[in-house]
């Protein structure tokens, strides 16, 4: 009896593992590719990822249709075949919107059933004609109760249309994800939780941009995992999403492959939350991880990893840079696994330094 039970358990084990990620929930180890970065799609090491996001398609405000800029059409339409040549299993999603896309256009589109339909139908035909496996919405951000309600209607109708399209055509369902704010509310305005839970395969939690010289007069950990006494951390955000009713296995934690550089007021006051007079290195202070490693190689700054907040920083004279290095990425991947989240995603592949952070994440996941 006992032996039979053991054998049964042994053979059930793989199925139990699959069951944990049921409802199509295969783990997500993802990254965005940003067309604006001019990073060649053919150089992406797709073996390090399960999913790649092609960013960004645009919303045409006249027609409410999803379009791809003519400068991007060649790279977008060949994106899937290009990244699949190194990893035939990688899934691709066409991402719509982005931080530079005016949120008012999404609010207007989502406010009417007829414009939502144009948006949804055009997104599906575009995804199919370009051979993507799914769609991703990056509306930054619906910011009033009305806009959140419209957002919920959009997601619900999008889900219905995707299911219908798959049934009618017999093709596998397109995936549907969205990049959302770090917390389940946008400055007290709650996201449409039920529509999100029922309509999206998962959400990308943008757990970064917490501090930057453009909006913070002190240095800070731009993507702290913990930040005691505040509501500004990856852990606070993830817990807010779970408490509001989104299951942990629908959450992917965002990793920034970039940091922010400040100018210190006093080079001897060079810790976290030190007074700053503004940005350094670039006009907005945003610097890719690749640029940060080059700065370190050229200038030999002091490098610090603070394991309490889970953030790296380095400083030399009056230049101070906060970012995620390998220690932060490692700690965050362990957090993702310990909390049984669906996975992680990075913004963006072209900002990494010779795949250092992507490999750290992938290897930590596998270990
Ligand atoms: C269902 O999908 C088919 C194929 O994409 C489409 O022609 C049809 O309009 C859809 N029906 C609804 C109700 O969305
Ligand atoms: C890490 O940062 C926190 C928050 O600023 C601070 O209280 C703590 O002393 C730092 N830890 C180390 C080891 O510097
Ligand atoms: C730091 O200051 C020294 C001496 O003024 C200067 O030579 C060096 O270029 C500075 N480095 C940086 C990164 O600002
Ligand atoms: C990039 O990484 C690979 C393997 O990790 C290494 O062999 C190669 O030298 C690195 N290239 C540069 C330019 O650092």
UniProtKB/TrEMBL annotation:
Annotated SMART domains: Glyco_18 (SM00636)
InterPro entries in alphabetical order: Chitinase_II/V-like_cat (IPR011583), Chitinase_insertion_sf (IPR029070), GH (IPR017853), Glyco_hydro18_cat (IPR001223), Glycosyl_Hydrlase_18 (IPR050314)
Tagged with keyword ATP-binding: no
The keyword Signal belongs to this UniProt entry's keyword annotation: yes
Keywords of this entry: Signal
Signal peptide: 1-24
Domain GH18 residues, every copy: 27-367
Domain of life: Eukaryota
Matching PANTHER family: CHITINASE, GLYCOSYL HYDROLASE FAMILY PROTEIN WITH CHITINASE INSERTION DOMAIN-CONTAINING PROTEIN
Protein's recorded name: GH18 domain-containing protein
């Amino acid at each position: 009896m006992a032996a039979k039970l053991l054998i049964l358990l042994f053979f059930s084990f793989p199925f139990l593992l699959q069951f944990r990620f049921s409802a199509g929930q295969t783990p997500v180890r993802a990254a965005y590719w940003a067309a604006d970065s001019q990073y060649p799609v053919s150089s992406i090491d797709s073996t390090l990822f399960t999913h790649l996001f092609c960013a960004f398609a645009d919303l045409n405000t006249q027609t409410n249709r999803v379009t791809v800029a003519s400068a991007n059409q060649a790279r977008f339409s060949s994106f899937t075949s290009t990244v699949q040549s190194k990893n035939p299993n990688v899934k691709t999603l066409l991402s719509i919107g982005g931080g530079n896309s005016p949120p008012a256009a999404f609010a207007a589109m989502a406010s009417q059933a007829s414009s939502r339909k144009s948006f949804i139908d055009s997104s599906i035909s575009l995804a199919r004609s370009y051979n993507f496996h799914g769609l991703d919405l990056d509306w930054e951000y619906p910011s009033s109760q009305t806009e959140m309600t419209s957002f919920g209607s959009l997601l619900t109708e999008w889900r219905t249309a995707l299911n219908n399209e798959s049934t009618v055509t017999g093709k596998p369902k397109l995936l549907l994800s969205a990049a959302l704010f770090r917390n389940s509310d946008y400055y007290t305005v709650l996201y449409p939780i039920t529509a999100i839970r029922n309509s999206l395969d998962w959400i990308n939690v943008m757990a970064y941009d917490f501090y930057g010289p453009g909006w913070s007069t002190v240095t800070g950990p731009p993507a702290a995992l913990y930040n005691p006494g505040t509501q500004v951390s990856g852990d606070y955000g993830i817990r807010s999403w779970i408490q509001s009713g989104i299951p942990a296995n629908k959450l992917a934690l965002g990793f920034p492959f970039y940091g922010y550089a400040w100018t210190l007021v006093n080079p001897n006051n060079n810790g976290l939350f030190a007074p700053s007079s503004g940005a350094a290195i670039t006009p907005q202070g945003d610097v890719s991880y690749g640029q940060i490693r080059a700065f370190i190689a050229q200038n030999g700054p002091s490098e610090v990893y603070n394991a309490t907040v889970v953030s790296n920083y380095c400083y030399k004279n009056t230049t101070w840079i906060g970012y995620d290095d390998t220690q932060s990425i490692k700690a965050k991947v362990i957090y993702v696994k310990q909390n049984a989240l669906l996975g992680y995603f990075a913004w963006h592949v072209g900002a990494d330094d010779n795949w250092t952070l992507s490999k750290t994440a992938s290897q930590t996941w596998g270990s």
